[in-house]
Amino acid sequence: METWTKTMTVLSNRVSLPGANDPHENSNRDEADEHGSRLAPAALADCTVVRQIAAMPWEAILWGIALAATAGLRLFMPFLFVGVMGRYASVPTPDMLDWTTTDAGILLLFVATVLEVLGDKIPVVDHALDAAATFLKPAAGLMLPVALLYDFSPMTAWTLGIVAGGPLALGVHSTKAGTRALSTTTTVGVANPVLSFLEDALAIMLLVFTVVAPLVAAILVVLLAVMVIKAWRVMRRALRPAAPAPPG
User: Fold this and answer.
1) Is 206 exposed, middle or buried (0-12, 13-18, 19+ CB in 10 A)?
2) Three-class SS of residue 224?
3) What is the pLDDT of residue 182?
């Protein structure tokens, strides 16, 4: 974990907050701290969390959020990605995810990913996988940011995992499952494999951009969140029972 922490800290120096290294700004922060000590405990706690988030390496935060979104699409793929990057690309791996870099971990995650990807192409099986993953994917979305950020600040890592990671994975998964159910109803499952391939492509894009362009991955996550909201509105209108016809 120490190597992971140092690496993310070095990377984060490329993106610094305004006034982060300004002594006058630091002096103002000290004065604010004195005033903050007189705030109510709840408000002080909120201020502390915000400051700790701002002090975290942004690359680590983006990694955590992007991997959580990917977990909403494919449960095992982000864990396999972390393991492969740590094992073969020499990317530092947090202690909580060290198991993903072992021979057994990579093999099990690879087999699980292949089975999930193939099973998602088969009508009826895809619905069973969605039902089984209803609780697993949000748990994975929570765990990934926590594992990546825990060493910087355990409280803030859990806060981001609970507030952002878990709900994001749940929203993406729920939209995926709802879209698949709507497709089954309207196309008798014919379009389901096509949707599955599109989900595979989106998950792989998120993982690739997480490494080569984290900001692009963040933009994709935002667009995905917008699509989740719009998709739920469309599905809600589509599934709303039609109003009874007026008596003739």
Assistant:
1) buried
2) helix
3) 83
